Amino acid sequence: MANWRKSSYSGPDDGNECVEIANSPTCVAVRDSKAPTRATLTFRTTAYVPFLEALKESAREL
User: Are strands 5-6 and 19-23 parallel, antiparallel or unpaired?
Assistant: First the structure.
C-alpha cells in the first residue's frame, strides 16, 4: 500500500502519537506511525467503515 497518512488527531512533536492509514477500493491498512516497518493490520473496507462508525458513536456517548 502506498499513500500513508496520519490522523488529523496526531499528538504533539510532529504527530508521533498516532496511527497511519492507507486505503484502496477494497481494503484499509493501519500501522503505528512510530514503527512503520513493523506489522500492518489490513481490513476489508466493508468491515472497517462500520467499525469506525461504532467508535465515533462510542466517543459521543462518553
Answer: antiparallel
